Amino acid sequence: MTSFTKIPDTEVPTISVHSSRRISPINPNIYSGFTEHMGRCIYGGIYDPGNPLSDENGFRKDVLEALKELDIPVVRYPGGNFVATYHWLDGVGPKDQRPARPELAWLGTETNEFGTDEFLQWCEALGTEPYFAFNFGTGTLDEALGWVDYCNGTKNTYYANLRRKNGREEPYNVKYWALGNEVWGPWQVEQMTKEAYAAKATQWAKALKLLDPSLILILCGQDGTSSWDYYTLKQCVQPRVSPLSSTQHTLIDMHSIHLYTASSSHLPNVTAPLAAERAIEITSSLIDLALVENGVPPDQPRPTICFDEWNVWDPLRAEGSKGAEETYTLSDALAVGVWLNVFIRKSKDVGMANIAQSVNVISPLMTTKDGITKQTTWWPLWLFSRFMRGWTIATHVSSGTYDGETQPKWIRGIKDTPWLDVSASVNEEGWVSLAVVNIHEDKDMEVKVEGVVGNDVKVYTVTGKDVTVTNMKGEQAVSVQESVWDGQGLYTFPKHSLTLLRWKA
C-alpha cells in the first residue's frame, strides 16, 4: 500500500519505505499471460510448425525461452472473444480430421490445428499452469462438463478415455476455469443481460463443482465499476449451503474484470492505469457487499479479483480484426510500469492478472520468421516479475502532482496523479524492491528516499531519449540499465523513467 501527500512542486519530494510493515502477500499470479486465437498470437506466434526456430511440436523455441524469463505462472486460453463460438472438440484428435470453422470474433477461419492438447503441452514446455475459458455463447453445459472431464478425469468415462485415446494417459489437472468472457458486451455472440448471465453462471458452477470440486471458477465481470459487477456478485457469491447450491463447495472463487488504457498524449497515457486502481477498490467493496448482504460466513474464502485482461491498447490504431499489433513507445512502457505498481499496491485483492496478450497481439514480445523483438513494454514486466515478489510494504510518497487532463476523464475527480508513481515490496530473503515511475516528461526528480539500508543499492532503470522511442525499428532504444547507488543523499529519478531500487533490509 502506498499513501500520498501532495506538496508544492518547489519542495523536495520524499519516499518513505517501511520494510518491516508488511501489508499483504503478492500473489505470483499477477504476472500471468494470455493467448487467444487472434491475429498471430497462436499461429506464427507460439506455434509455427516448419519454421527452423520451432521444435518437433511446432512450438517456437525462441518464444518459449523468452517467456521463461518472465516466470509466467498462469496462461489464459483460448479467449477472449474467440471463445464465444469455440467448440473444444473441434481441436482434439488427429489433426487431419479436425474441421476448419468460420471464426466470428476476429472474422477469420479457425483451422483447429492447435487445440487443447497442444496448448496444454505448450504450458508444460513453458512451465506454467493453464487457465481455460468456457464458451458461454454457443456452448452448452454438457460441452463444458466434457471439457473438464477430458482435461482432469481419472475414471473410466467417455471424455477421460478420449484423452487417453489421443495419447495422454494422465490427467492435465487444469485448475482455473472462467465462466465466459465479456458476455455483457455488444460485440459478443450471444450477448447476455446480467440477470440471464447470473442465473446461468450459478447453474453451471453448481454442476462443474459437483464434477470436480477442485476447480477455481472465475465469474465474468465487466470493468469493476458497473451495475453488472454488482448484480453478478450479489447473485452468485453465496454461502456454501444455500438454496442456490446442492454442493458444500464455494461456487465462485474469483471475479474477472477487464480494462485497457491508452492516450496519444504522454501524461494522460501514463496516468490512465490509475483507473484500474480505482476499479479494483470498487470491485473489492462490491465483493464485501455481496458477502455481507448474502450472509456468507467468515470461514468461507473471500473471492479475489482476476484482472485477466489488461494492457495499453488503442483499438483504433491496432484494430483487433487486423491482428492488433501495437508498436509500443517508452510512454507505453511507463504506463505498464504504473499498471504493475497498481497490482502491487492492491495485492490484498488481486489474485491474478493476465497481460493481454503474450505474443504478437498487443504484446511486449513480437515474432518474425527469423526471430523475436522485445518491445519497450517487455522491460517493466521483466523487472517486476523478477523482483517485485513477497509482500507489499507500507510506503508513503510526498510529491507534486500532474493536474492536467486524464484519460478516462473521471480519474481527475477521483484519484491523485503524483509525478512519482510508487510501490514497494519485500521478499522472504529480506530484499526490498522500490519501483518508481517518474511520469514527468521533462524534469528529473531529486528525491529523499527514507528507509534505505546500506551503501550498495542496486539500481535498474528503464528510460530513453524521449517518450516516443520504440524498439520496433531494429534497435533496442529501451531496455534495462543496471548501476549502483551508495544510498547517500538525494536520489535523482530521471525524467520519463521507471527505476527499481533494491537493497537488503
TrEMBL record:
Q: In which pathway does it act?
A: Glycan metabolism; L-arabinan degradation
Query: Which keywords fit this entry according to its UniProt record?
Result: Carbohydrate metabolism, Glycosidase, Hydrolase
Q: Which domain of life is it from?
A: Eukaryota
Q: Where is the Alpha-L-arabinofuranosidase C-terminal domain?
A: 308-497
Is Hydrolase among the key words of this record? yes
User: Which EC numbers characterise this protein's activity in its record?
Assistant: 3.2.1.55
Function per UniProt: Alpha-L-arabinofuranosidase involved in the degradation of arabinoxylan, a major component of plant hemicellulose. Acts only on small linear 1,5-alpha-linked L-arabinofuranosyl oligosaccharides.
Instruction: Write down what this protein is called.
Output: non-reducing end alpha-L-arabinofuranosidase
Q: Give the classification, highest ranks.
A: Eukaryota, Fungi, Dikarya, Ascomycota, Pezizomycotina
